[in-house]
Amino acid sequence: FKTSKGVGYSAHFVGNCLVLTSMKVKGKGFQHCVKYEFQPRK
């Protein structure tokens, strides 16, 4: 999704990690990996 300022954000899961990608400049950005432990509902 994108903000009104033109900054694009995307998030996806890799294994049990949530990877957040922020694109501020076209072609440039940074990724942030958040370790997330999934708890199955009983």
Structure commentary:
The chain is mainly beta and 42 residues long. It is 0% helix and 57% strand. It is built from no helices and 3 strands. The chain has strands at residues 8-14, 17-25, 28-35.
Q: Roughly what is the average pLDDT, rounded to an integer? A: 67
Total helices: the number is 0
How much of the sequence lies in strands comes to over 45%
**How does the overall form come out from the CA principal axes?**
elongated
Strand arrangement within the widest β-sheet reads 1-2-3
Indicate the low-confidence ranges by residue numbers: none
Secondary structure layout plus pairing:
Elements lengths: L7 E7 L2 E9 L2 E8 L7
Antiparallel strand pairs: 1-2, 2-3
Short key terms for the protein model shown above:
42 residues; mainly beta; 3-stranded antiparallel sheet; 0% helix
